[in-house]
Amino acid sequence: xxxxxxxxxxxxxxxxxxxxxxxxxxxxxxxxxxxxxxxxxxxxxxxxxxxxxxxxxxxxxxxxxxxxxxxxxxxxxxxxxxxxxxxxxxxxxxxxxxxxxxxxxxxxxxxxxxxxxxxxxxxxxxxxxxxxxxxxxxxxxxxxxxxxxxxxxxxxxxxxxx
Length: 162
Hints:
mainly alpha; post-AAA+ oligomerization domain-like; 0% strand
């Protein structure tokens, strides 16, 4: 692509997108590496920019792949656009102003860090999304290690596990 005249910044941008959209949680370091390569590319210019671009390209090509974060945000956005988002639960609304406090906003909120293990049963989503599941993890790379953590946290928050 470089020899064909493509702008190195365009290549760097595509690598950042690849790291987020196609690799995602299977290797969270992919995004850091891609952003670093883009920054190096911008700082160095050609011909040296070819080196971090090559390094990032090889690393990303070898990464396990997962688009679960990409799919999750798209599904959540689709629900919002379809009007399914509902209202933020009252206890999550700020109580920092007298108007909010007078309307019981923020009342009943439980600060997770006051509890072990800093996660508690508490409603964080509107009733309309009670059964929505946006994140569908894949058994790829690092994301495999997140599956049990995600299942345990979800069960704790929804009161299915103490």
